[in-house]
């Protein structure tokens, strides 16, 4: 779910990071899909994930040249969520994890499923219509958390998530 990238993330390492939902990078991190420079292609997902995350033109600029991209530019392009000093990398990744853990596990699963599965739909409308059929969304709608969240909000207290 969260990649904490320190140093070089090239080829397969970058592809693994792209498969994560959030990328936190140290200020010395560098990203690339350099396979074209050695007669290969980034066929472990990078060729499909990067254009979906930063747009076709920017992705093709990286993919077709194998260009190295520093963390700050990765944030500007949109595939890095946050850049921090190297010494703060793990604390920043943990902060992101804590923010996710503060939310309902059922809602996190449903939201992630709706996003990832919805991206496979041909249009926004079909993605919107299909989301109610996703098992994680159905489970959320039937969960104790679905009742607990609004009740805790109304009672001005912190929710007690059950994850069921």
From TrEMBL:
PROSITE patterns in the cross-refs: ENOYL_COA_HYDRATASE (PS00166)
Pfam families: ECH_1
Keyword Translocase: no
Keywords, ordered alphabetically: Lyase
InterPro entries xref list: ClpP/crotonase-like_dom_sf, Enoyl-CoA_hyd/isom_CS, Enoyl-CoA_hydra/iso, Enoyl-CoA_hydra_C
Family stated for the protein in its record: Belongs to the enoyl-CoA hydratase/isomerase family.
Protein name (database record): Enoyl-CoA hydratase-related protein
Lineage, top ranks: Bacteria, Pseudomonadati, Pseudomonadota, Alphaproteobacteria, Sphingomonadales
């Amino acid at each position: 779910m969260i990649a904490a990238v320190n140093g070089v993330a090239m080829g397969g390492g970058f592809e693994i990071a792209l498969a994560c939902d959030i990328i936190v990078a140290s200020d010395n991190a560098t990203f690339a899909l350099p396979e074209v420079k050695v007669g290969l292609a980034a066929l472990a997902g990078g060729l499909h994930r990067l254009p979906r995350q930063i747009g076709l033109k920017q992705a093709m600029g990286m993919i077709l040249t194998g260009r190295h991209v520093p963390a700050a530019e990765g944030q500007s392009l949109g595939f890095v969520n946050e850049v921090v000093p190297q010494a703060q990398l793990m604390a920043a990744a943990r902060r992101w994890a804590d923010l996710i853990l503060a939310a309902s596990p059922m809602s996190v699963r449903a939201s992630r499923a709706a996003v990832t599965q919805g991206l496979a739909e041909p249009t926004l409308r079909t993605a919107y219509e299909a989301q109610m059929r996703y098992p994680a969304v159905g489970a959320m709608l039937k969960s104790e958390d679905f009742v607990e969240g609004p009740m805790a909000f109304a009672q001005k207290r912190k929710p007690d998530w059950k994850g069921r």
